[in-house]
Amino acid sequence: MIYQGKIIRTSSKLYQVYLEDGRLVEAFAMGKLRLGKTPLVGDHVIVEEMGDKFGIQEILERFNRLYRPNIVNVDQVFIVISCVEPDFHSLLCDKMIFKANLANIHPILVFTKLDLIPKDHYVYRFIEDYQHSGYDVVLVEKEGSINDFKSYLKKKISVLSGNSGVGKSTLLNRLDSDLMLKTQKISKALGRGKHTTTNTTLFEIGEGYVADTPGFSTLSFENDSKRKLSIVVLDFKAYQSCKFNDCLHVSEPQCGIKDAVKQGLISEIRYNNYLKVLDEMKED
After folding, report:
1. How do 65-66 and 76-82 pair as beta strands?
2. Which phi and psi angles does 198 have, rounded to 5°?
3. For a disulfide at 80, which of 7, 50, 162, 199, Cβ 3.0-4.6 Å?
């Protein structure tokens, strides 16, 4: 029998695959496949059932890949941002958004610790700016409902990104109180510390899958392309009617992005942060 499935964990030379019929099985990479690319967590695969064994015949086309952690076909990244402790910084937040754009992963902004700030706090201005720009924004309070957050998980592969202390672990534990226990059990089975394991595991939460590793290990842009960034920023998508095909939207004449910023159609905050990131990047 032939099935389609999704790899949710790798361990040694075996792969845990969630099959389309609901079964979770261990599969090995078949000989022909081993000569090609290596199966990774998140891969959609074709699996053959052979008696009591399962073999991965084929890896279907991937639409994106993260290298640290090593995971593919990520649908979305939850960019978790605390309003205070640590304080919110728009450049840091936008860098994570731009990293998601470059990786072809949909960003969802999750603001935490809203219960610790007054209603006139400056963070709300930035929240409104993101919402006005068309970003998915989830607001999380300590005692509030997290149903909005949970609704985004359904049938998706998600990763979380954000600085230490912003509330990623707290958020996941509110979704599934057993998650930390599951992570520790897997780390113990691998004989490694929780923070040193190189294995990636997808945990089933809220009818979707969440990776146990952070979304982005670095926010350096020195190895990224200026030209690619100028194209993939979500805010720019509808206004790229520039005179020059290689326009970086900095000082070029007849630039659709700069015109849209002047007209208030593109966030000036995002545009200025884009310019700052551009300055960090090497020449293409």
Report:
1. unpaired
2. -95, -5
3. 162
Tokens representing residue 131 in the block: 């919402």
pLDDT at 75: 95
Rounded average pLDDT per 10-residue block, the chain, 284 residues:
94 90 94 82 96 95 86 94 92 95 95 92 96 95 82 91 81 76 52 47 86 74 92 95 95 96 97 96 77
* Number of residues assigned to the chain: 284
Tokens of 82: 């605390």
pLDDT, residue 237, reads 93
Residue type, 193: G
CA 124/CA 11 separation, integer angstroms: 44
Amino acid at 209: Y
Give all domains of the chain, ordered by start, each with its CATH number.
2-59 (2.40.50.140), 65-214 (3.40.50.300), 226-280 (1.10.40.50)
Any bridge partners for residue 54, and if so which? 49
Q: Which of 8, 234, 247, 279 is nearest to 103 (CA)?
A: 234
CA 202 to chain centre: 13
Contacts of 265 (CB under 8 A, 6+ apart): 239
Mean pLDDT of the chain: 87
Residue 66 bridge partners (DSSP): 71
Please give the backbone phi and psi of residue 175, each rounded to the nearest 5 degrees, phi first: -75, -40
Which of 174, 161, 169 is CA-nearest to residue 206?
Answer: 174
Q: Are 14 and 27 in contact (CB under 8 A)?
A: yes
In angstroms, how far is CA 159 from the centroid of its own chain?
5
Q: Which of 45, 99, 107, 41 is nearest to 71 (CA)?
A: 41
pLDDT of residue 184: 53
pLDDT at 190: 45
CA atoms within 13 A on the CB side of 133: 28
